[in-house]
Amino acid sequence: AQSVSQHNHHVILSEAASLELGCNYSYGGTVNLFWYVQYPGQHLQLLLKYFSGDPLVKGIKGFEAEFIKSKFSFNLRKPSVQWSDTAEYFCAVSLMDSNYQLIWGAGTKLIIKP
Amino acid sequence: GAGVSQSPRYKVAKRGQDVALRCDPISGHVSLFWYQQALGQGPEFLTYFQNEAQLDKSGLPSDRFFAERPEGSVSTLKIQRTQQEDSAVYLCASSFGTENTEAFFGQGTRLTVV
CA nearest A96: which of A22, A31, A2? Predict the structure, then answer.
């Protein structure tokens, strides 16, 4: 069965540190890739997505992600985090033959120390 | 409102009780999704509607789970004879088109079965 792995369940960083959250998926075919964020007490919202084209995708709030097909990875990065980035981050994948259904990782809780 | 609305936000049910969870999608959104999120996990797909048609219910965990969207707008997820393992957050999402380009999520209903 297809799956999505997020390597770190909890990450604690200081403000201004650089961030990289790992995401790997297991599926050999064409995929669409997503990162969602859930701020405390709020709903899930889309951070960025990759469907095709430039594998380096820029999203909101200074986040970016790079699709590396050979590594089945879609890691999320931000050069300098802020306290307001404290949230839970989810990687998700949809498969081309059932592109309405998202397959999710377990999430990474990010805490930024002021 | 402009977003996806779910009610109730919290529901405590006694084991064996039936529950109904409501989702009001964004007006005009064709696609509607239900996901189940257990504690510490990512969401898991339950079912998908395109307008009033339920196109995929492969994720519903048992025949105690039933979803409907009779007029292609509001949807209800019903769980009969609730069990403790049904305790989770139930998320509803909607999207404008028929492909999962961007799904907008509600805040979820947290169901606790005691």
Answer: A31
Report the DSSP beta bridge partners of residue B57.
none
Q: Which runs of E-coded beta strand occur in chain A?
A: 3-5, 10-14, 19-21, 24-26, 31-38, 45-50, 56-58, 64-68, 73-78, 87-95, 98-104, 108-113
Residue whose entry in the numeric block shows the structure tokens 């492909």: B99
Residues of B whose CB is below 8 A from A105? 42
Condensed to tens digits (0 to 9), the pLDDT of residues A66-104 reads 999 999 999 999 999 999 999 999 999 998 777 788 999
The CB density around residue B10, as the number of other CB atoms within 10 Å, is 11
* Binary contact (A4, B42; C-beta < 8 A): yes
Q: Closest residue of A to B41, CA-based?
A: A106
